[in-house]
Amino acid sequence: MILSKSQFVRGVKCPKSLWLLKNSDVPRDVPDEGQQARFETGHLVGRLARDLFPGGREIPFNPDDFEGMIRQTRAWIDSGVDTLYEATAQANGGFAMADILRREGGGWALYEVKAATGLKDYHLYDAAFQFKVFRDFGVDVRRVFIVHIDRSYVRHGDLALRKLFTVEDVTAQVLAMREEIASRHRGLAAMLEGEMPDRDIGPHCSRFYDCDYASWCWRHIPERSVFGLYRLPGSKKFSLYDRGVLKIGELPGDFNPNFIQSLQIAAEETGRPVVRRGAIRAFLTGLRFPLNFFDFETFMEPVPRFDGQRPYQQMPFQYSLHILHADGRLEHREFLADETRDPRPPLIARMLSDLTPEGSIIAYNKGFEIGRIRELATFEPARARELLGLVDRFADLIVPFRGGGFYHPGFNGSFSLKSVLPALFPDDPELSYQALAIRDGGMAMTAYATLHLEEDPAERAKIRADLLSYCRLDTLAMVKIYKFLNGL
Ligand code: SF4
Questions:
Q1: CATH number at residue 336
Q2: pLDDT reading at 36 higher than 90
Q3: How many whole angstroms from its chain centre is CA 124?
Q4: Which of 99, 128, 151, 245 could bond to 117 as cystine, CB 3.0-4.6 Å?
């Protein structure tokens, strides 16, 4: 049976996952929008990196004719082509495509491009497997490189590819893995001829990436289980699981919970929330009217488009602001940048005029908003004083929850807005994210990052309206949470 490099890496992660892929009809989990966006980002970065070695010839991808791709690769190598993109090889039960294959120093060098910002262990498995396949195919590969993004690059003017990308020589690591790769390849091939391996769930399910058979393999885990215990390290979760403990109500006597976990266990036992009014009151009395409920949306991209932007920098492009006055009046203000320009200058100007000059600024997980505001201050020094002056006014609405003021069994060990809202307001149609086209921050990020590529003005306008609806809901939700806590 032929293994591609991604199948080989899957087998290294978990042989059962590879067996299910090759030998079963068990459906795989569908990639969510974020994973889909990461695949697309990978392709985009791969194409861009070719310009590091211009003038090469691309083997056209044809999923119905891999044989043809392999023949074409062989023909171009034999005819003296120096640089190939997507060179394709198959030998000894292995199949691989190389992002860039280049004649160098009397032999060949193989470049594998990654959209990541550093070297990961699965990159080495990936590269070492490719090295083996191309060598077995008869290509004299002597050096192997991983090309990845350098996060410290800051764009100024034209894109500087040699600064955007880091080219890391991994030849020594790949050579050291030759025996391991050959033996794993033989082992996986033999495993695929037999019955499904008896492999239980474990930390390997999220090694390298989240396994797409998780829904199937994890189906015996109840919705509220020890895996939802607040901030319990993964190793401890699996050690409970290995002792046969699945439910929070079954925790053994020697389990030593932290403070929030003890509230979680109590709420689970009674099926009712735990309320500690003192902690809630301490938070509420620190707030000053008018209350500015504030939330940023950000996007990030591997290849910076604007001056002063770094790869994968969190770029604020939108905010929503609900202002609650002492007399009960509620105002809404919002901003969504023009997707074709750097969003930061207009956002700074509008934000500084929209926020009230006094009163608390309330965010949910304020560290994120404060972090972006500090970056904006560095970006625009002329407004730095005003921007940094906002920082001390921030209050964090997660504090009453994280501080143990209120725990609901429905939180399932998480205080994210997406966990808290359905538990507190199960029947509030105004707070239903499911009714929205954009339902979470990841979707908002992807929608905005690709919006400038959308050519249909009507579709652009719709996406912009969807973004506004989503962000508005986040701050409206905060207002409702505040009122709920106040009501306690
Ligand atoms: S979910 Fe875990 S145990 Fe199941 S196939 Fe994937 S990695 Fe293996």
A1: 3.30.420.10
A2: no
A3: 21
A4: 151
Q: 43 with 170, same domain?
A: yes
C-alpha to C-alpha distances, 433 to 363, 428, 459, 483, nearest whole angstrom: 19, 11, 21, 20
Give me the mean pLDDT over the 138-166 stretch: 97
Max distance between CA atoms of the chain, in angstroms, equals 81
Expressed in angstroms and rounded, the spacing between residue 115 Cα and the centre of ligand 1 is 25
- Contact yes or no for 300/270 (Cβ under 8 A): no
Of the residues 9, 14, 20, which should be mutated to test ligand 1's pocket, given the most ligand atoms within 8 Å of the CB? Answer: 14
pLDDT digits (tens, 9 = 90+) for 339-370: 999 999 999 999 999 999 999 999 999 999 99
Residue burial 437-464, b: 16+ Cβ < 10 Å; e: rest: ebbbbebbbbbbbebeebeeeeeeeebb
Instruction: Kindly report, residue by residue over 107-118, the tens digit of the pLDDT.
Output: 999 999 999 999
The protein residue whose alpha carbon is closest to atom 1 in ligand 1 is 214
What is the mean predicted confidence (pLDDT) over 431-449? 87
User: pTM for the complete prediction?
Assistant: 0.91
Among 188, 210, 211, 227, residue to substitute to test ligand 1 (most atoms within 8 Å of Cβ): 211
Helix residue spans in 160-202 (DSSP H):
161-164, 171-176, 178-193
- Which atom, in ligand 1's list, is nearest to the CA of 207? 7
**Ligand 1: residue whose CA is nearest its atom 2:** 205
What domain count does the chain have? 2
Distance from Cα 185 to the centre of ligand 1, integer Å: 19
Q: What pLDDT does residue 432 have? A: 80
Return the DSSP state at 220: T
Quote the CA–CA distance of 297 and 335 in Å, as a whole number: 10
Range of 305's domain? 280-487
269 within some domain = no
